[in-house]
Design a protein that fits this description.
This protein has about 220 residues and is of the alpha/beta class. Helix content is about 40%, strand content about 15%. It has one domain (about 25-210). It has helices spanning about 1-20, 65-75, 75-100, 120, 130-135, 165-185, 195-205; strands at about 35-40, 45-55, 110-115, 145-150, 155-160. A five-stranded mixed β-sheet has the order 1-2-3-5-4, with helices on one face. The structure holds zinc ion.
C-alpha cells in the first residue's frame, strides 16, 4: 500500500517536470541539461517565473563528472536566486537615478537560466555566427555568459552562464546578463537612449559598487 502511494507521487512529479521543460537558446541546443528549479520567485516588488537548469554529462569526453559537480556547487540554485534578488533591488535604484521606469512592462516575461560547463561555453565555433553578426572576429574575444531573448518563443528568455572561478568576473557576468533581461522585461528600449548592451554596461558600473568579495 505504502509502495503504491510512493509510486503515484513519483509519477506525478515526473509529469510535472516534463511539462516544465524550459525554452533553450539555439546556441546550446546540443547541450543536454536537467531542470533543477522552477518557481514563481517573489521579489520585493514583482514575481519572476524562473527556471534553473544544469548541463548533464552526455557520456562523451567534453566534460567530466567532477566539472559538472563543481559547476553545480559554484553556481548553486541559491547563488542564482540571490543574484536575482539583489539585481532587482539594484535595478530600482539604478533606473530611478536615470529617470527610467522601475515597474514591469511585460509581467509574464520568464527567465530560464542555464549553467553550462566551461568546455561548452568556450567551445570553438559555438558563437561564431553571433560574433560575425557583431562584426567581431571569433578569435577576438571569448564569451563568458550570454543573454538570448529566444524570439521564437514569446514570453521566454535565456541567460546562459558558466562559472569561471573568478568571483568578481562571475558576479559581473551574471549581473550584466540580468540587466539585459530587465531591459526587455521593463521595455526600456522605449525609454533609454542607448542599446541594451549600453544599458547592461552602465548597469555593471552600478552593480560593482555592491560587490563584496566574501559573497552575499
Ligand atoms: Zn551584453
Amino acid at each position: 500500500m505504502l509502495t503504491g502511494t510512493k509510486t503515484a507521487v513519483i509519477s506525478i512529479l515526473l509529469v510535472g517536470a516534463a511539462i516544465a521543460t524550459p525554452t533553450k537558446s539555439g546556441y546550446i541546443s546540443d547541450v543536454e541539461t536537467k531542470l533543477a528549479y522552477h518557481r514563481m520567485l517573489e521579489l520585493s516588488d514583482r514575481a519572476v517565473n524562473l527556471t534553473i537548469s544544469y548541463e548533464v554529462n552526455m557520456g562523451d569526453s567534453r566534460t567530466t563528472a567532477l566539472d559538472l559537480k563543481w559547476m553545480e556547487a559554484d553556481h548553486s540554485v541559491s547563488y542564482i536566486k540571490n543574484h536575482l534578488y539583489s539585481s532587482n533591488l539594484m535595478l530600482s535604484e539604478f533606473n530611478t537615478g536615470l529617470g527610467l521606469p522601475t515597474s514591469d512592462c511585460k509581467q509574464n516575461y520568464n527567465l530560464n537560466v542555464f549553467i553550462v560547463s566551461n568546455t561548452t561555453m568556450f567551445d570553438d565555433n559555438r558563437f561564431d555566427s553571433y560574433l560575425n553578426k557583431q562584426g567581431k572576429s571569433p578569435s577576438e574575444r571569448a564569451i563568458y555568459a550570454f543573454y538570448d531573448p529566444t524570439p521564437r518563443v514569446a514570453g521566454d528568455s535565456n541567460v546562459v552562464l558558466s562559472p569561471i572561478g573568478n568571483d568578481r568576473q562571475d558576479y559581473l557576468s551574471i549581473q550584466h546578463e540580468l540587466a539585459h533581461f530587465w531591459f526587455d522585461r521593463l521595455c526600456l528600449a522605449k525609454h533609454y537612449s542607448g542599446t541594451s548592451e549600453d544599458y547592461a554596461l552602465e548597469y555593471e558600473k552600478h552593480a560593482i559598487k555592491y560587490y563584496y568579495p566574501e559573497g552575499f
